[in-house]
Amino acid sequence: MIKIIKKFIPKGKINRPGIKMNPKYITIHNTANTNKGANALAHAKYLINVNKEISWHFTVDDKQIVQHLPTDEVGWHAGDGNGPGNMTSIGIEITENKDSNMAKAEENAKELIRYLMAKYNIPLKNVVTHKRWSGKNCPRKILPRWEEFIKSIPIEKGTPILGTTTATLQQAQEWAKKKKAPQGFIDLASIYWQLAPRRGGVNPVVAYAQFALETGFLFRGIKSNAGIDASYHNPSGLKTKAGGNDTNPNAYQRFNSWEEGITAHLDHLALYAGAQGYPREDTPDPRHFPFLNGTAKTVEQLSGKWSPLKDYGNKIVSLLREIEATQVIDSNEDIKKLKDEITNLNLKIDNLKKQLNLVNAEKNSMNQEIMNLKQQLKKYQDFFKKIKLFLEENNKEI
């Protein structure tokens, strides 16, 4: 799932009541804001600055998910006062700004819904519209096709094979480097990220993790137990149509290139997951059997199917979680941050200099005033001496 950016409404504001909640529903909204730039971050800024009893938990656009409230706190979004809409549901606003891809925003929202359903054990029947609570025509863009929207949210427990990437190409390559994988394995990651969206919408992280498991990170320059190596261009252990014994190298398909082998790999995963348009005719997958269609929608379900091993799917999940957790140092981004920090420091230094100049100016002014006072005091002292001398000469006391 896309990383969730947290931009919480400050505590104590009127639109963050702080009432604790045990979420039982997920309420879907459309922002009804078609202005350019009215994306998730723009709505986060709005909620932070607004002084009204209006708030929700997440805003989703075509690129990101922004969270405004903890999911165990009440938000004012359902329009039913202290009713179950506000008091027991997580509010999700889907953007509709005209400079975004709304279909992609909806897909991102579905990923978030899926995640929240699993986290809080919320059944699909409890994913509801804003209209359910208050009668408002919301989510206005989705209401006419609500049933279609709901049916497109997968409810299988486990790690979906299909879906947008859950990690970047850079994360995958950095992970492979840390695993001391051969450079060839690292370089092939880019083909997965390039082809996956076009081959059934397979999450490339799933396929790349399986590639690592099946080949031991591209055989690390040696042959497998079956006697196959990188020359087969076979990243996933796919056999020929006729198949054969696991230890027979002739039972495994030889592909003409890595692009062809990776395409076959992605197509085989998409077939198992029941991707739209599968089975397909234009595939290099030698075992593209229609009876496999939709028989394993999650990675965990590949156990006993792609491989006879009972923990096969879990092994892949373990690897893909490592990829998702890998931190990437972006030198360009780091340089930009450093430049910004230097700029901020220079501004602070300039402000301190201005303050110091003011202090120095005030100090100079005070010094001048002290000098003036000293001069006046000296005049008074001189005058006093003259008076004293005069009086002494005239035998008078002060």
TrEMBL record:
Entries under SMART domains matching the protein: Ami_2
Q: Which parts pass through the membrane? A: none
**Highest taxon listed in the record's lineage:** Bacteria
One of the entry's Gene Ontology molecular-function terms is:
N-acetylmuramoyl-L-alanine amidase activity
E.C. designation(s): 3.5.1.28
Q: Record's Pfam families?
A: Amidase_2 (PF01510), Glucosaminidase (PF01832)
| Record's keyword terms, sorted | Cell wall biogenesis/degradation, Coiled coil, Competence, Hydrolase, Sporulation
Where are the annotated coiled coils located?
328-383
Which reactions fall under this protein's catalytic activity?
A: Hydrolyzes the link between N-acetylmuramoyl residues and L-amino acid residues in certain cell-wall glycopeptides
Specify the N-acetylmuramoyl-L-alanine amidase domain's residue ranges: 11-155
Biological process terms in GO annotation: cell wall organization; establishment of competence for transformation; peptidoglycan catabolic process; peptidoglycan turnover; sporulation resulting in formation of a cellular spore
Membership in a protein family: Belongs to the N-acetylmuramoyl-L-alanine amidase 2 family.
Name used for this protein in its record: N-acetylmuramoyl-L-alanine amidase
